[in-house]
# Entry
Amino acid sequence: MNGIELADSSRTRYGAIAQTFHWATALLVLIAFIYGPGGSEERVYSSARDFDRQLHESLGLCVFALVALRVLWQLVDKRPTPAPLSRWMRVGASGVHGMLYLLLFAVPITAIAGAWLEGHPLTLLFGLEIQPLVGASHNAGKTVASVHTWLGDTILWVAGFHALAGLYHHLALKDGVLVSMLPRWFPLRRPRGD
Ligand code: HEM
Ligand code: HEM
# Structure
């Protein structure tokens, strides 16, 4: 076995590409959430809200594309060696990660379906529009759009809990889980230093 294989087989961090996917997704979800267009349908689609809605929809579609690429990347990528955790923590962490992936797909899908069923095109930055690919069914669209806003709030709560769990690993369990998602140049080291 040569040196490269050896280093790879005992990996302590996610690779640079997986980390970039992770932090880019986290940042885009946060900014999309901040620019979430709220209120009645008339307000959401009013010209006064054009910029916020276009930014929100563009960032949301980037999240959708990123998560699809990220899942494909995971098929070929090598993950770090898991930290030694109790069974319930392993199950809990997998459950939260699974829920985050589900939400990362469900949030944009319900947004797109809701807008199209309501009869609106997707309105993106630089005046780009994607016309509905499904026939309008206004009431169903309204329901799906409200599911989207609910899931949009939920992903922030779950991600917040997930972030706290990352900090708990670092500060209380003193393992390398948080550091595994950080680049080498980031000035934070594994607490036990091993
Ligand atoms: C990860 C990505 C996304 C997150 C976290 C998110 C989150 C949210 C939240 C929290 C709201 C409600 C805002 C409020 O009530 O103040 C909202 C509304 C909305 N979002 Fe998103 N969203 C995302 C992606 C998208 C995408 C991809 C689109 C369209 C392509 C979109 C279109 C909309 C629309 C049209 C509304 C208004 C819904 C209505 O009440 O009719 N969102 N979003
Ligand atoms: C919207 C925000 C976020 C989303 C959607 C998100 C999503 C995810 C997902 C799906 C994973 C599973 C690993 C993978 O398959 O790549 C993960 C891992 C991880 N995330 Fe996040 N994350 C977010 C924010 C954060 C924040 C703010 C922190 C730190 C404070 C964080 C720390 C970590 C760590 C340490 C791991 C590795 C966990 C392990 O390997 O057991 N994440 N994240």
Q: What stands out?
A: Helices lie at 3-9, 16-34, 41-44, 50-76, 87-117, 138-173, 177-180. The longest strand covers residues 122-123. Residues 1-9 have pLDDT under 50 and may be disordered. The chain is about 65% helix and 0% strand.
